[in-house]
Amino acid sequence: MRDLVERFEKFAPQTWAEPGDPVGLQLGRLDAPVHKVLVTLDVRPEIVAEAIAFNADFIFAHHPMMFHPAKNLDLADPQNQMYATLLQHHITVYGAHTNLDSAPGGMNDWLAGALGLEETTGLIPSNGSTATPEIMMGRIGNLPEPTTVLDFAFRCKEIFNITGLRLISQTPNAPVKRVAVLGGSGSQFYPEALAQGADVYVTGDVSYHTGHDMLAHGLSVIDPGHHIESICKAQLTTLFKQWAQENDWPITVETSGLNTDPFTFL
């Protein structure tokens, strides 16, 4: 599996990740033999059960499994039990987070492409230790045809196949041509979207007070949630299959079929 990781890290080096982001090997050994890879957004107990059912020996995730170090290994804690289950079944876990967000042709290009944005450029510079000025998180671009804030919000629901989203706007009927997008939790970067002339900013996890600040600045924001980053599952699966074919790697690649969004709209 080291071959796949080395090839991926040419596409999205770990050093492009934001400072302190725990990317890379999460559990296991990179020199362990691998036959089947499961691609997922999150690593949760149900994903581990899916990997076991698939006979996968490698999980490639966008969100790191260990955002916070374990304080103990009490197996009554579901997170610790998940680690134990992974070790018991000899499953290696790797995470690619903000390095994938910043990579050209990575997460934010996939999101911009899904939204139909054209003439896209980066939104904010990466803080990764080796990132060049061209390595950027988020994208901003133009729609082929103008629409309205409200219509674009409904379009986002369809594009991302979600049952609900949050619209932050005092002008839902205002025209929209220029759109900024940043996958995950990007609400703190709304000033950059404003500065670059965005009519609408698409990002997740907007907090109450930040929402008020966005309204005060006259920016319309669509919060479709953090889970829209699941777009990475199909995209990474396609990449990995292509690389496996090009390099004659004896692996198969599966896409997780589970929805790990913790929220349900009623």
TrEMBL record:
* Transmembrane region(s): none
Q: Which residues bind a divalent metal cation?
A: 62-63, 101, 226, 229
Keywords from the named record: Metal-binding
Which Pfam families does this entry report, sorted A to Z? Answer: DUF34_NIF3
Q: Which InterPro entries match?
A: DUF34/NIF3, DUF34/NIF3_sf
GO terms assigned for molecular function: metal ion binding
Q: Which GO terms describe its cellular component?
A: cytoplasm
Q: Which family does it belong to?
A: Belongs to the GTP cyclohydrolase I type 2/NIF3 family.
**Complex formation:** Homohexamer.
Q: Under what name is this protein listed?
A: GTP cyclohydrolase 1 type 2 homolog
Q: Which organism is it from?
A: Levilactobacillus paucivorans
